[in-house]
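Re: beginner question about structure tokens

> Can someone show what the tokenized structure looks like for a real chain? I only ever see the sequence side.

Sure, here's an example I had lying around. Input first:
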Amino acid sequence: MDKYRLLLGVLFVTLSWSCMQTYAQNVTSNPTSPLPNGTMTGANGTMTGANSTLPGGNGTAPGGNATTPGTNGTGQGENNLTTPAVTTPTPAPLAPNTSVETLPTTVSRTECGTTQLCAAEPSSCDPSTGSSCFFLGAQKKDGNNFEFALSGESDGYIAASVLSPFNNKEVTYICANDNNVVKFFGAILESGQLTMTNLSANSVKGKVNGKKIQCTFLATVPDTRIPAAKRARRATDVTLSVSTGAYNASSGTLGTPTTAVRAAVADLANSNATVVNEIANSTNTSTTPAPGANVTTPGANATTPGANNLTTPAVTTPTPAPLAPNTSVDTLATTVNRTECGLTQLCAAEPSSCDPATGSSCFFLGAQKKDGNNFEFALSGESDGYIAASVLSPFNNKEVTYICANNDNVVKFFGAILENGKLNITNVSANSVKGKVNGKKIQCRFLATVPDTRFPAARRARRATGVTLSVSNGTYNATSDSLGTPTTAIRAVVADLASPNATVVNEITNSTNTTTAPTTAPTTTVGSLQTDISSSGCGTDKLCASEPSSCNPAAGGTCSFLSAKLKSGQIYSFELSGLSDGYIASAVSSDSTAGNGDSTYVCANNNGVVKFITATYNSNSLTETALNVTSGSTYGKINGKQIQCTFEATLPDTTTRAATYSMIIINGTYDPTTNAFGTPLVLLRTNLVNLSDPSANTTNLVSGVAPHYHPLMQALLVTIAILVLPIFGH
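And the corresponding structure tokens:
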């Protein structure tokens, strides 16, 4: 028995040594040796107080800054001290404080181009006047701290957003009208949704005057409170936005923002930059005007001498008037298509894959903003009579309807109000109609004002937000000019008709039209993943599947891990980790069968860096295929054989419209030279689960997957088994 005790003792010592070695590898020693005041090493040291002790053999003699050898003597150096170089510390990020004081002044553009970078819509906007416009000014204070001045009109809130190129989040500062006083919020704007959070912002001042909301505040840019793949040291290459939205003072809820200004800014601290509003293509030149002609000096209303001695008045761009009704129809020279879907055009279709440029039988509606509240619509569908597009405003119960009828093989255009299933012909704000008929296919294009100001409403909508789009068809009698009852093929609520990359869900068939611009190439730019993927948040914040089930990829080891988290609509964020000399990949299957045309996202080892490729998984092969992956969302890293990557993707529909998929992990060989994939090996395939439910139970249905153990642990387990068996034998 004693010999077994000895062997067990050796075993426990070995285990203890292994644990201590692991601990030592993960602990970084940072011994800090505080230096007592007055300690000097070498010829020039810093002395505190009248009499300081100088260790070592070099003391400073009183008087003339000469270094004399000595043995730890005390120097009297009132004036014989060497002053160290003073380094001004970078000001710390601002502490969050959402309290709001009354703004005693009016936001203005006085400092634009001198100390303040300005963005406005229209570009001539002066927020100190009574004009209706949007304005944002940014003035650098110290370090990365800026003072912002925000002004705009809204019944709810106005907001300023700053998007850093190092993540895909917009840090958003919100000033809301809370019963005629300003309430301040911090939030992250992501995929059109505002998520409240604390931001490095304070010193807020605000006021409300009718619909005009104005506020000033200090904020740290970039905000170090928000995690990023790569921390930006300065506020460069940012995107500024100004938006508005609804606010419910009772519940404290914020509506979806509508963007009025959006502009890329090379350097936020550069006050005289030229800012171009991408929404309206207007330019805000905040350069200070040159002296000379057309400069008005303050004082007794005198104009300084210049070339022409004229004062140039501010130019206000008027909002385009509603369109005049005109039902005449020209021949449509081209074919309606979906080329601009997700780029400049919002699209709704049934089926969702409908391309009206082909010969297929389907229904399609595209909407592209032109100017003001005027839109160009493209309509296509099949009918023996007519096809129609309807727009329902939330401020009344009427659907303004645009009808393209087959009138003896040419298009005839009608305007109507659809109410209680009946079409009542009337003039609508639409013109520039073009159309053609080919067999049963009717196609037309036209301009229309949305919302149409020709129709009374309980409350006038200023923009085309919160509308419902419909596409329908019906019979038409060319002799009597009568229209039959419409049959609806598409009906979808749209948050903002001017947003081309919105996700549109057809309520009739529960099919989704994702109009985000499709990926044009299977490969995607991959950023550097700065942190390890981990199992933290599994079951609460994200749905996880792994082999073995206890896998935490942040702890190393040989395991496979996949997580999914719903972002919005059908957009999900994924985390993938596993071991391979070639590639690892995640796939989603709507029928729980691996390799049945599954959308697959591949992270390959391309000579030590991650290459991200989208593909279709069929049988035992991968074929590169363009899939909807959110631009700028892909990050990856390689550590030995471990490959990790994160990305966001829009998933295809399932037959039930629930987000039900089987989660799959595969790996295989990869040839960087030929871009060839080896035969996939399935490591994990789960039961069908709802990806939007973090608490869903996942089970690996792949049989014969051996659990992974650390080699040292395997050896120790074998040793324990050998020792324990003889002991029990006694």
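Each token stands for a local structural state, so reading them left to right follows the chain. The chain has a mean pLDDT of 78.
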